[in-house]
């Protein structure tokens, strides 16, 4: 495990940039030393209480650290858990004092946007995971389907009940954040492909061959998407999706200087 952390140094100085390609979600880059501490978590999946508790513990830990701090959210805020709407409301608000917070997009978040824009896909989306999300907005989708409500009726209800600002928030989310040799994404990257050529779909959906091969680039990838009971350490990667909606455990990874830990 220790050898993996050698990828944290040295870091190359960079300046914050946004992708100018409007067809892709933004990719963010920050310089080494921009933040005194970085806290990352992934796959909240509607678990609002655990999200709030994680932020409380982060603030408690960071109180001893001078300088600016960063919280990085690695995607999948909706589905599975009971409070997707509360999670999105929380994350769209101002972060704690002394912190910046960057919220990356996961595949479940992108799918919710697609449903909102194209509700004719409702059955496909429900088969994917979305019933709990609609419940969190007060939509009894089972009753609607049993009543043989048409797609136009369901679309109108979804658009009336889900605040447009939540959808706009999800549409605005970047898909990658880089700090020197540390890369934060939801799912992983396509091994050996230059970061500028990585597709949004891979960054939000990939499992293999990334999980077995790692990035095949000089980076350490912090990711979620593939659940496990404890954080997983693979080739040049750390997976921090600990399936909070099933286990109750929301993992927070910390980076302080060149040291990586679990809060």
Automatic annotation (TrEMBL):
GO MF, any single term: bis(5'-nucleosyl)-tetraphosphatase (symmetrical) activity
Pfam families found in the cross-reference section: Metallophos (PF00149)
Residue stretches making up the Calcineurin-like phosphoesterase domain: 38-236
SUPFAM superfamilies xref list: Metallo-dependent phosphatases
Gene Ontology cellular component terms for the protein in this record: cytoplasm
GO biological process per UniProt: RNA decapping
Transmembrane segment boundaries: none
PANTHER family: METALLOPHOSPHOESTERASE, ZINC-DEPENDENT ENDOPOLYPHOSPHATASE
Protein name stated in the entry: Serine/threonine protein phosphatase
